[in-house]
Amino acid sequence: MKQLFEPLEIRGVILRNRILSTGHQTFLAKNNQISNDLIAYHEARAKGGVGLIITEAARFHVSSLTKTPEIQLLSDDGIEGYRRLAQAVHQHGAKIISQLSHAGRCSARQIDGVREVVYAPSAVPDHRFHTMPREMPEEMVAEIIEACGKGAERLAKSGVDGVELMASHGLLFAQFLNPNTNLREDAYGGDFERRLRPLADSLKLARIAFGEDRLVGLRISADEVEEGGMNENLIKKIIEALTEQGLIDYVNTTFGSMAGLGGSIHVVPPMEIEHGYLAEKSAAIKAVTKLPVFVAGRINQPQLAEAILAAGQADVCGMTRALITDPELPNKAAAGEFDDIKACIGCNQGCIGHFHQGASITCIQNPWSGRELTLAAPKVAKNKKNVLVAGGGPGGLSAAVVAARCGHDVSLFEAGSKLGGQANLASLLPDRSEFGGLVTNLLRELEQNRVTVQLNMGVTIDLIQDLQPDEVIVATGATAYWPKLEGLEEAHVLDARQVLENAANVGSSVLVADWRCDWVGIGVVEKLAREGRCVRLAVNGLHPGQELQPYLRDTLAAKLHKAGVEIIPYARLFGLDADTAYLTHIASGDPIVLEDVDTTVLAYGGEANRSLELALRKASLKHHLVGDCLSPRTAEEAILGGVKVGLTL
Q1: Helix residue ranges per DSSP H, 455-503
Q2: How far apart are CA 520 and CA 88, in angstroms?
Q3: What is the pLDDT of residues 350-403, one digit of tens each?
Q4: Per DSSP, what are the bridge partners of residue 581?
Q5: 185 neighbors 129 (Cβ within 8 angstroms)
Q6: Where are the alpha helices (DSSP H) in 298-388?
Q7: Where are the beta strands (DSSP E) in 270-339?
């Protein structure tokens, strides 16, 4: 890790290493101000050894405010929160820079349930939020530049180490820079120099605020990869101009645009996208500037970051989600404890997935992320107990690990030959093998905490009565749910698990009936299409992936389209015969008849396995339920449930 842990000096500010937590929305703000929860969140990463933290974008002008719990920096009232945040980060040796941003047209901008006016350089519609913005009057542009300067002044007074302006992802400054979204003919539009002016003038004010001994940075997409978006050549020209004018101290590169579905998947790329895939883009930026260049994009392991730095493709590596999963990653890497790093798997459920639900940030593998002040840390219990865990899926594994960390003697029994439960099935989906990393990480924690494991042994009442544990945790999972269907005995029907495990023959013309509307039905379809089968996907919802976070959903939608899969939305399966499937349109009630179906695959999720629970109830034995045997949901709920049970023993 020679490159990764080499300090970097930028204008007198020294980063202790090259590991960066990039700006990302946490929704931990309270009353649109820095909160104790947000401070604790960033302090955990500073304590874990990160070199630089860039905080989430603050809104600096009233025209960008929304109903969401974003940070607002419209008055001096916000200074104290940033001061406390900077002090918390600095005391652990990390540096901190804060972002300022305005979304412009890339916003639905709702307040109190109604859409507010969205302002942009020109009246060019956005294709993601379906917004037609209002062109800013010239005096409003000047007002926004001034407001950005005021925001920078407030940040400078708080004691942070710098400010970063966002011209990335098709946001407001990028909209001014782009000739396809800036159609103005006044002082802020037309030729390149006038399009650059709003950003350049804002950077000048930021420099005045922060002086010569702190940092002014730029975040910009290396390519917006969106129809009408800025391309790599224009981006390079912008960076060259800002460098020549001495307006920025570093370039923080990213990819994509929030103005459309295709470009926005790169905002937080899911596991289907290659690790470190933007390193070549940052290398191209380094070719046109002598300034330090930061890069992010699926860099989840220190070894990968080291390779990017050693190849000269970047100077600092953004490892944001990796640090959400394991805030101690830098310290562990510095100590050579690579096997102990809990690696991010790019599932996007707890981080950006929570954001899209309007919930605060967390991680499915590390429920303490974002809950530093509300979820107790494991501590040694006063009374040591013998704990029996029945079931080795994510919920059972999580409960066993936390109970052991609390000092209890824990024995885990798994009826199958392998630990991991349905996480193992998830890793069998196309391009989702990385999900298996969740199991790998939990197994390492089992080993570290000396949990006794017995495979191929299901838990019975007799076993419990023989062992006499003090506590019983039931995590027996779920079995595949099969609905009652007319003609089931006439047709060739399988469930998704059988297909993923290659446990049964599949015909050449397949219907996948997707009730869950998550990644399973889509994954099964893609697997079968890759095998050369003709596949149709009937979705009991609005569209495939309805229950998924948008960036993953849109990535999978693109894959289905490229595979030529026929999609039947609003469709519920109710009957079958030897070669025909009968469905109902769930809105109209009209029949949908699909002929030439050799095999029907049911993606209907799971049904709680309650046999052990019911036996324990009958015997009046105390127990705790965790995971799908309580209620079939996702690994996030199973792991969080396991943590909570483990903490309460």
Answers
A1: 461-467, 496-500
A2: 42
A3: 999 999 999 999 999 999 999 999 999 999 999 999 999 999 999 999 999 999
A4: 576, 594
A5: no
A6: 302-310, 320-325, 329-334, 352-356
A7: 293-295, 316-318
